C-alpha cells in the first residue's frame, strides 16, 4: 500500500512557482500559464496606472492603431480631462489654435469676431452685414440707400445716375432696358409673341411670321448712315433723345389694332381719335417723345413690311433733327422718307398720301388732321393750288422713280404748288418731285441739305400746321432755305433741280 502511494506521488508535478505559474519536478513551465503571463497588464489596468495626459494619449493611440474604437474614444476623452490643451488630442478632433489656445473652429471664429468688434468699436465703427461702417452709414444702408458721388440715395436712383435702367429684375444700359420694357408691354397687349432684334440704334419687334429681322435692321442701319452723312446729324442716340428707335411689325391685323391705344397714350402730339384712325391704315409713326413706328402686313407682301420700316425711319430721323415741337412741310418730310427707303432697298413700297378725308387711307403714317378746309385754297388770298401731274406708280415701286419723274417733269407745275400741299394731297407725282428736289439738294455739296433743313426749322409755322397759310410767309421761308443750301433764289432753284434731273 505504501509503495503504491509513493509511486503515484512521484508522478505528480512539483508545485514550484515561476511568477504566477507552476513548474513540474523536472523544471518545465506550464506553457498555457506562461502565454497568459506574457500579455502583461490589461488596457484598463494601464489606463488606471496612467498619471499624465501624455501617458493617456499614448495608450489611446495604441488602441486606435489596434482599431479598438470604444477604448480609443474613452481614452481620448480622459486625455482631454487631464489636459484640455493637449495638442495631439485637440488636433485629432479638428480643433484649432488661436493665440496659443486650442478651441473649436466656431469658437475661434467667435473669438476673432469679438476681437474685431472691440477693435472696430475703438474706431467708432459698427457691423453692417459683412462690413464695418460708421453708425451714419449703417442708418443709410438699413434704408436701402447707397453712396453715389458722395451723396446717399436709393439704389435704383444711383443705378439710373450710372445710365442703367431695370428690366425684369436686371439693370441694363438705359436705352436697351427702356426698349425691352416697351416691347414687353406692347407684346402683352398684342396678345401674341414678338421676336426681338436690338442694335445700338434701334429695336425691332415682330411676329415670327414676319421673317428674319436681321436684314431689316441692316437696311435701317444703312439708311441711318446715309442720313447722318448727308444731313451732318449727331450720330448714335443723341438724335433719338437717348433712346433706341422702336419698330413694331405685325403680320396679323388684330395685334396691330389692339396696340394703337397704347401708342396713342405714349405721346401728347396726337389728337383725340388718332388711334381709331390709324387702326384703319397700314401703319403710323410719331417722333415725340421718342422715335416709334408700327406697321402691319394687311394686303401686301413681306418686302413691303420692311419697306414701310425704312420709310418711317426717314420720317423719324428728319423729324427728330432740330425738333422744337413744330412740324416739317409735307413734301419735304415725305421726300426724305421716300428717298431713304429707296436708298435702303432700291424701291419704294410706301407713300404717305391719301384722299382729302378726315381719316387716313392706304399706307398713311399720319392721324386725322385737325378739321379744316380741305379744298384747293390756302389762306385768305384765295390762291389756287395747281394739281401735280400724276406719274406711273408701278415705276416708282420698281425703283424707277427717277425715270418716271423725268418722263413727266415738263408737266409739273412750279414749286409753289408742291409746297402748298398737305399730306392728304400728295400723289405719286408730288412725291417723286419731292425726292428729286431732296436729291438735287444733296448734290449741292456737303452740308447743303442740313442748311436747307435748318432754315425750314427756323421758319416753320406754329403747330399743328405744317404749311404756312400765308403765301408770303411760305415764299419767304423757301427763299431763305434755297439760298442757304444752294446760293440760288427760289425761282432759280426750281429751274436748277429740273435741269439737273434731266442731265443726271
Quick tags:
alpha+beta, two-stranded antiparallel sheet, Neutral Protease, domain 2, 504 residues, disordered N terminus
Secondary structure blueprint with pairings:
Elements: H1 2-11, E1 16-18, E2 21-23, H2 31-38, H3 43-49, H4 53-65, H5 69-82, H6 87-92, E3 96-98, E4 101-103, H7 105-122, E5 126-128, E6 131-133, H8 135-142, E7 145-148, E8 151-154, H9 155-161, E9 164-167, E10 170-173, H10 174-190, E11 195-198, E12 202-206, H11 214-231, E13 245-250, H12 253-265, H13 274-278, E14 283-286, E15 292-296, H14 302-320, H15 330-345, E16 377-378, E17 383-384, H16 393-397, H17 401-407, H18 415-419, H19 428-443, H20 448-458, H21 471-486, H22 490-503
Parallel strand pairs: 12-13, 13-15
Antiparallel strand pairs: 1-2, 3-4, 5-6, 7-8, 9-10, 11-12, 14-15, 16-17
Helix pairs in contact: 4-5, 11-14, 11-15, 14-15, 15-19, 17-19, 19-22, 20-21
